[in-house]
Specification:
Number of strands: 4
Strand order of the largest sheet: 2-1-3-4
Shape: flat
Number of helices: 9
CATH topology of the largest domain: Rossmann fold
Distance between the termini: 33 Å
CATH architecture of the largest domain: 3-Layer(aba) Sandwich
């Protein structure tokens, strides 16, 4: 939304649509950006008594550049045991059509990510991207890893 819609509109010669897309993009935020930067909230009052590791998605790292914002939010969650994920910046292997066009490579990348999650002893791996969570969650389930994938928003909304 923030990076590609206006570009596509310009490429197709629709200057008005590009301008409108830029206006929407200026008001569009990733969840942790909205909470930390716009609303200036780090402690949302959540409680989540589980061992959790966080996977920063490729999109959040390279395109959105959300940095430490999700971790700042997670560190403020009461009861959480937040543990660092080994090889934290390594892709999970999903990448949209990448996982379809390069299935063997995707599966190998996923196996590495699943092993990294297992190494933490975490009950939960969290991220802000549903596609990565679906991919990692499926890998954890098939491997019998005993961990599950949970969206960052679910943890921040939790009152366990």
């Amino acid at each position: 939304m923030r990076h590609q819609h206006a570009e596509v509109a310009r490429r197709f010669g629709d200057a008005d649509l590009a301008r409108r897309a830029e206006a929407v993009a200026a008001r569009t935020f990733e969840l942790s950006e909205l909470l930390v930067d716009v609303l200036q909230v780090v402690d949302v009052g959540a409680s989540y008594p589980h061992r959790v590791t966080y996977h920063p998605t490729c999109h959040s790292l390279r395109m959105l550049r959300v940095g430490e914002r999700p971790l700042r939010l997670l560190r403020a969650v009461r009861g959480i045991d937040l543990v660092e994920l080994p090889e934290v910046e390594t892709c999970c292997g999903f990448g949209g059509t990448f996982s379809l066009k390069n299935a063997d490579t995707s599966a190998a990348m996923l196996a590495d990510k699943v092993e990294a999650v297992r190494a933490t002893g975490a009950q939960v791996v969290s991220a802000g991207d549903a596609s990565c969570l679906m991919h990692i969650g499926g890998g954890l389930s098939r491997a019998g890893a005993g961990a599950r994938a949970v969206h960052l928003a679910q943890i921040l909304a939790s009152q366990e």
